[in-house]
Structures
1.
Amino acid sequence: MEERLLKVRMQNFTYQNAVKIVFGKDSIAQLPELLPQNLKIMITYGGGSIKKNGVYDQVVKALKGFDFVEFGGIEANPQFETCMKAVEIIKKENVSFLLAVGGGSVLDGTKFIAAAVEYKGDAWDIPTGKVTVETALPLASIMTLPATGSEMNGNSVISRKEIGEKRAFASEFVYPKFSILDPVTTFSLPKRQTVNGIVDTFVHVCEQYMTYDVNTPLQDRQAEAILHTVIEEAPKVLKDPNDYDARANIMWSATHGLNLAISCGVVMDWSTHMIGHELTAAFGLDHGKSLAVIMPSVFRYKADKKGDKLVQYANRIWGITEGSKEEIIEKAVVKTVEFFESIGMKTKLSDYGIEVKDCKNIPAVFEKRGVVLGEHSDIKPQDVDKIIAMSA
Ligand code: NZQ
Ligand code: ZN
């Protein structure tokens, strides 16, 4: 009896999140006060967007008088091999603080680098979960792409192209010491990345929400507040990419989408992300796109188990109240798909030239890792197969 009750009560949790957020226009200028003095710093960045949009110049200006080296070239879906090159340089140059400047990939790569520098064994053990991270170099970020929430969490996702893997790890040691969020830095985002980021945020919230009720009205309404905000602000940033207010609201929503406050005490289901990561590993599909393709199918496939929450979502987010439970749920899924499509996000595998038959190896990946998905651990490899087939 007690055990059954515990399952439907707010789950016990420990929450600590000490990331200092410095938000707003011109906030990069505050770097000198935020950075540690007398430590050699490495700035990490991606393929060059920061050199085109003026962010690099702002950083270098702010770092006048600091001892620093640079490491560029961290790819979207950061690659293990590239990150390991930074590890070598850090050891040779005695770097003791890392500053990631760019999107989630740069920051995730930097989190991995920070942990790998301190690890004596094969660093691939870190993202594969063979070891628990016990220490890492301190790091901070200047986030230029609202999406991942990486600026305020301890998560990192690392890819290894040559073996077709994309793996995630989490550690309290890789939380940024601070993250600077200047919405102006996001004005230069191509539409593709803006849209990817909006969908990523939306799906993060859903994966912490769309399970079953454990009597957490505050967390539910916090999650719903983020969804409402994203739905309202997304068309504004697409209409005018230089709309500071809309960019600011999207940016802060993304941070809240995955700083894990809304996950406190709730039951989560990260199936869409887990399946999406495999689509990215197999086909190089952008993270946001992989989620847009899979989440509607997860909702439909699990409509029985997620039904009550889907109805709450239908009522509170989309104002849908008419019809049978099944009809309300289906209308809500259609609304979700329409929202994604309305901002220019395609939602079918075929839209990206991917055929279901080419995904046949994906369920076996979960089988091999012994992973089952879903809040009831009832999404088995054969269910993953069906979910992918529904996403054709
Ligand atoms: O590499 P550069 O030249 O910087 O260009 C990037 C990249 O090509 C560009 N970009 C970033 N900021 C820009 C900009 N272009 C113009 N103006 C700007 N202000 O955008 C492209 C994509 O960047 P990326 O960092 O890959 O995107 P995102 O932030 O969406 O990160 C995706 C990665 O994060 C992981 C994903 O799996 C993927 O590997 N995730 C990390 C999570 C976390 N740490 O908590 C959770 C997420 O669910 C996600 O899995
Ligand atoms: Zn994501």
2.
Amino acid sequence: MNTHLGRAAVAVAASAGILSLAACGAADEGDGRPGGARGEAIKVGLLLPENQTARYEKFDKPLIEKEIAAITRGKGEVVYANAKQDATTQNSQVEAMIANKVHVLIIDAVDAKAIAGAVRKAKDAGIPVVAYDRLAEGPIDAYTSFDNEDVGKVQGKALLEALGDKAKDGQIVMMNGSVTDPNAKLFKAGAHFLLDGKVNVGKEYDTVDWKPENAHTNMAAALTALGKNKIIGVYSANDGMAGGIITALKAAGVSNLPPVTGQDAELAGVQRIVAGEQYMSVYKPYAPEAEAAAEMAVALARGEKVSGIINQMVDSPTTKAVPSVLVPGVALTRSNVKSTVVDDGIYTVEEICTDKYRAACEEIGLK
Ligand code: BGC
């Protein structure tokens, strides 16, 4: 009865009391019984939004491929496309996959609204759609992501902890993600929920396309407007942007860096955390998210229900009660690098502790 769901998803599902037989059924199909209409020769279209953020091609893609192979005993096929942050390209990629007769689509939308028409076309062609990480609009069949408002709260809480009783002794800068990404709105809402009233927000930006270089430009503008000595902390929605922000702070001559948040536990982000340049990231265990997507995709392609895999229902602006699996994320700081990304096998100590970071690694006992 291995559902292939990772620890975090199982914990969430189990605590909700809903890890039912159907989930086991979906996995068991691959172990002998002919699996529904299509058995194991399932063609899955996988569409990811961009490749400037490391997670997509380093974690999400290989994890989904591995899980599809496991459930279909190597007979499933994954057709992959990356939209490189272009919503029009992604719409064409969906159309190409419909023409290519995939049996199911897993879509992480560049722009959650702009993808709705393509989702409708897939539906009309009888192809179910799993929204991956970002809640695509249109008639999707299932969704998997993290608890994104909680991710924002984890970031906000960590920033407050870092500021301590100096939280109002200056200004913070808030660098949110792209407005086309519904997650960015949730991260922002979660962060504001914790920070409002407790800090002074000197400048706040929605970063076009989540691009690190745009975060760099905005941070440089904030430094000019507020003064480099007045900025006591930076809320950055992810690690890629944190990189751009920290470069801007250094370029402005800030030697004592203020706490900067992040998300994704990117290797470069983890290294900055070890070195004390970035205060925190949010470690989101990608395996349970990817495994849930693969399981739901295979079940839907076989014409089976996903009710046994999910742990809640989520409403999108266009579609009510979407069967969903949401996974929790955790704060990653200097104090828990080992118990999170190292112990989970995301990075080895050798990968993190290269020559440049060896001394910092030793300071925190990472060896
Ligand atoms: C994802 C983040 C990622 C960001 C930029 C969000 O939707 O949840 O993990 O950093 O997009 O691609």
3.
Amino acid sequence: MTPRPGIEPAPLPSVVVLISGRGSNLRAIVESTPPCRIAAVISNRPDAGGLAFAHANGIATEVVDHTAYADAADPRGAFDAALMQAIDRHQPQLVVLAGFMRILTAGFVDHYTGRMINIHPSLLPAYPGLHTHRRALEDGVRLHGCTVHFVTSTLDNGPIVVQAAVAVDADDSEDTLSARVLEQEHRLYPQAVRWFAEGRLRIDGARVRVLPPPDADTVAAANDRALVAPALDR
Ligand code: GRF
């Protein structure tokens, strides 16, 4: 049968995920089956636990070891250049930093403006940097949480896509608080990747607008025309 023109499905947007460690956010994203193709998982550490998960799930993995560039004239620049090459071989629409523990050069960040996101374990702009849970406990804050944001050249800064806040309990330890925040990270990051893949994020200065799904009106109108129990999602 001659294939009919015009019915090829659009290719899924491609995503590269950068990790340094256990990769629980990577796992949450993969298991959410987002409408994108995870083209590769790249780690700066050969022993990152998330690499085994990616490999077991048939995702290409690569290591760009930052220690290999320690003797370069500009170690940070040389590492970022190698990382950029490794990423760009996959021509991703989106770069996802999922526990990627490296400070990136401005040139690297600029190259991915509007198409690189990060998850940070605090309610930004509070507590950029490391040890966020410990610092929140030391300050006695009652609300703590996590943030998904577009990456800019200022550390843990950039237009915020989504945040979740959790209450801090009087007897919380760093471990109990980080576990509750991580649970929220695993809800937020897959959703943010899905929004991006669906083309629903618009950066407007410091703010991000999340556009409604294209069929939102149709679903609402269909719901108005009938009583359906239990309610349909779409
Ligand atoms: C997460 O808490 C993330 O917010 C932070 O690093 C941690 C990474 O955890 N940037 P995992 O590797 O995704 O399990």
4.
Amino acid sequence: MQAKLTINKSNEFAEVDPRLYGSFIEHLGRAVYGGIYQPGHPEADEKGFRKDVMELVKELNVPLVRYPGGNFVSGYNWEDGVGPVEDRPKKLDLAWRSLETNEVGIHEFAEWAEEVDTEIDMAVNLGTRGLDEARNLLEYCNFEGGTYWSDLRRQNGREKPFGIKTWCLGNEMDGPWQIGHKTADEYGRLAEETAKAMKLIDDSIEFVLCGSSNSHMPTFGEWELTVLDHAYEYVDYLSLHQYYGNPENDLKHYLARSLDMDEFISGVTAMCDAIKAKKHSKKTINLSFDEWNIWYHSNEQDKEVAPWEVGSPLLEDHYNFEDALLLGCMMITLLKHADRVKIACLAQLVNVIAPIMTEEDGEAWRQTIFYPFAQVSNYGRGQVIRPVIESGSYKTSDFAEVPYLESIAVHNIQAQEVVIFAVNRGEESLDFTMNLEGYDITKIKEFSQMAGFDIKEVNNEKEERVKPEASESIRLEGQIITADLEPLSWNMIRVAVK
Ligand code: AHR
């Protein structure tokens, strides 16, 4: 089967915001306790952070990590996590029915974030709390000194402000499961007033307003329009969350989920612009896809997890090869919308629906989804080029045309390369032609493929079998590149250009 990608230099349409490759650490399961933080583990540093985990986080090259939740934040008192560790209260975390020791709080997390060279995307509790605690937290984090909260930070060992730039106004406030769940009007007003007050302290910060928890929520659409109507002038991004799964074991349908994601992004973008037009505003609201991933493998086992423990093994999905293919399609989809999606957080980062897993007494290891994420995060930097795709397609119950080829290209001007990412969704190989108009190709730098595995194959601590390998099946003739895309494959092609 043939497939073709044509790109033209005049169609570079968006600069990738590095925050597109963000991730997420929530106080949930073994993400913090037993994940990034495990004092006593042979790999722990003097602060208790696992160095093996930090190394893998650095391989993923994540510039932003959302923290501390998620559902957790809607019942969290941030003050419990500051001051001498021995004085910090142990509390019930109602969101995940776990115990929170508060050994890790904002100071510890900020130190970890600095070690792995990432920024914090801080969520405030608009569930059980509100404006007052949110503005206190901002004063604690970002104000230089000379006030109660900023001096408390200094007393607690941090002289300089944390300088947190991105703030989430709550989490999934449309969800009936959320502690302190609100109607769109209730939330819209609260978010507006909270952002307004916080801007008075630090007007350099940016806000993410909660959109719907997923595109299938009964209030989807109404929610976006209402909350934007209230808070438009004070916020910068609207959030999207979406997880997919393959419980029906229908591969074709599963690999088409990125088309659903594509429609979701286009729909939310249109709603932001509708409110912009309604308000005659000059300001454009961009999107923060601040939770996205695959989540379903662990649903049954989570029902067996005992409540009220610290670091229970919750949401520990073990990802297989088909998950890596869908994740690749989802990353390509985010890049296709890089003009409007400025922040995205792979949810999550360690142990909890995560690319990185840890063994309690052993090593940290890479799940299958680690690899497409790492390749796009490391090489998908620069200008995204609008793709023209010619490919056969198949039909699913919800999409008339699902192209076998999913692809995008990014021009990294500094590195003098064009990087092409491609998924072959089909079970036949694709004879793939890449036509790079307006770029002067000097050579093929790399062709890396993830292919040939059983679709259900997983990695584990002992063996990371599902990973990319270099391939020779690529040719450059004049300015035309052709490559063989193996059936069901993830591909990255790096081309040197002048
Ligand atoms: O990422 C896991 C959970 O999924 C988050 O806590 C919540 O925001 C979402 O429902």
